[in-house]
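in:
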């Protein structure tokens, strides 16, 4: 907003607007719409303004935008994908180390005056093979953070080729499954990736393995992961995202998978804050401001 004021771009700041209010505001002739993850942008919303030229997504995920409808209507869609990659990468390493060394569980026990050393014996990261699925901004940043830990890094990305280097070996998905002690997900949610990690996927993996999901909750079938945890096919599960994240409004059916997840001793969970650092918040704004100011000057 400071940048817009500096260069004279008029704007409306309505962070609490509901869908009806957004449509009404767009009908006033807005040329652009800046959103985060809570605003679904479908064809009806895109058609509300005949002057709408672009939609800017603060963050990386585009699953709340009907990108195909936007393309059909000639509305550009862009995001700030690289802006929170460092934050997500650091969060990934934090969750992984917490999982391997039982830090969250041990902390909770000490606060209850329990001093359980043997029960919280850790597993070292050094010497492990880490498989990264999705080698975009965050996957690349995770691989960079892993340097120095003495691990082998494998990476798979369906839409990128020839990205391997001395530190990262480019492989196919089957190689990730066969050889990884740890699998970390950094992919967008699409119809192709929805429930990618299910019972069949897990059966094809080296067992037991650790699973981390810092992409989108619906990439993982949580019920299948819980079953694999119970059968020791998955050694531990860390997730910054869930299939549904409005946990205070869960139905009995949703609590049927959520309750076992939070009660399990080999899970580490956080409330979708991987990319939510103070620094990334600033970088996202800067990246979008640069792009919007450029577009509005054309």
């Amino acid at each position: 907003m400071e940048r817009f004021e500096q260069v004279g771009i008029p704007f409306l700041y309505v962070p609490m607007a509901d869908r009806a209010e957004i449509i009404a505001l767009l009908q006033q002739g807005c040329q652009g719409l800046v959103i985060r993850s809570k605003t679904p942008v479908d064809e009806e919303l895109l058609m509300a303004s005949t002057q709408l030229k672009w939609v800017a997504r603060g963050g990386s995920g585009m699953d709340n935008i009907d990108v195909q409808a936007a393309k059909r209507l000639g509305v550009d869609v862009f995001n700030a994908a690289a802006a929170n990659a460092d934050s997500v990468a650091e969060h990934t390493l934090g969750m992984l180390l917490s999982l391997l060394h039982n830090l969250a569980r041990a902390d909770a026990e000490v606060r209850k005056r329990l001093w359980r050393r043997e029960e919280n014996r850790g597993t070292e990261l050094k010497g492990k093979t880490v498989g990264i699925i999705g080698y975009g901004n965050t996957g690349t940043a995770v691989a960079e953070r892993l340097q120095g830990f003495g691990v082998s890094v494998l990476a798979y990305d369906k839409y990128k080729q020839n990205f391997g280097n001395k530190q990262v070996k480019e492989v196919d998905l089957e190689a990730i499954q066969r050889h990884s002690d740890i699998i970390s997900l950094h992919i967008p949610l699409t119809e192709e990736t929805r429930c990618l990690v299910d019972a069949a996927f897990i059966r094809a993996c080296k067992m037991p393995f650790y699973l981390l999901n810092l992409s989108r909750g619906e990439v993982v079938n949580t019920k299948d992961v819980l079953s694999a945890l119970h059968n020791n096919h998955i050694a531990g599960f860390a997730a910054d995202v869930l299939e549904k994240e409005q946990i205070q409004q869960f139905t009995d059916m949703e609590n049927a998978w959520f309750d076992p997840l939070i009660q399990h001793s080999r899970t580490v969970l956080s409330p979708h804050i991987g990319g939510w650092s103070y620094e990334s918040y600033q970088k996202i704004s800067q990246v979008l401001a640069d792009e919007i100011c450029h577009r509005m000057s054309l």
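note: The mean pLDDT is 96.
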